[in-house]
Amino acid sequence: MSDSNSEFRKVVERVCAGSDEAAWELIETYGPHIQRVVRRKLNQRMRSKFDSLDFVQMVWASFFTEREKLASFTEPTDLIKYLATMAQNKLLQESRRRLQGQKHNVGRECAMIVGTEAESAYVRKSNTPSQIVMAKDRLEAMLHERSDRDRQVVELRMQGLTFVEIGKELGIHERTAREVIDKLALNETA
After folding, report:
1. Which residues, other chains included, contact 178 with Cβ-Cβ below 8 Å and sequence gap of 6+?
2. Which domains does the chain have, with CATH numbers?
């Protein structure tokens, strides 16, 4: 047995005995081999979702759940082959989930186009307090020149009543209530 194999066996025995220091030594020594495999095999479309270290950590997490399996490795090359195979399997499993499944499929994602009205409506769902105050001021200015009935129509509409309900409440036709709101909207855009 060569010196490197005897050193390898000593580290393996310490890891199997539960030594955290030996486990870290194993990770530092053989982690780059896993990372190399991951970087070479990681699908291009998944690179925006995962870093190669994510898969390295997945491999080590699975590996250390079965520490007793480590005792079966007699040479470092056997361990490297095993870890590389684990990494490929993790990549394959995640690739199937992200490229073929429906829930997390990266192929179904689409970019939002900056500057469109749809985006601004998406981004800002509620008005800021200052926008609310400004809107109230504009409304008061518009209602200042209106009749009491028109002000009542607007107030009831702001409370969430339908035009039919406003008509019944004020004893007017629903079309009349609708016209009041429509005229105010026309004045606002003019």
Report:
1. 163
2. 3-108 (1.10.1740.10), 126-189 (1.10.10)
The neighbour count for residue 111, using CB atoms within 10 Å, is 5
| pTM (two decimals) | 0.49
* Residue 166, H or E segment: helix 163-170
**Rounded to whole angstroms, how far apart are CA atoms 124 and 15?**
54
Q: Which three-class secondary structure state does DSSP give residue 131?
A: helix
Residues (pLDDT < 50) of the chain are 118-119, 121-122
Residue in the structure block whose two tokens are 């896993």: 34
Which has the closest alpha carbon to 87: 51, 44, 38? 38
What does the alpha-carbon distance between residue 162 and residue 117 come to, in Å, rounded to a whole number?
A: 28
Q: For position 68, what pLDDT does the model report?
A: 75
Contact 188, 142 (CB under 8 A): yes
CA distance 72 to 156: 80
pLDDT of amino acid 27:
85
10, 17 contact by CB (below 8 A) = no
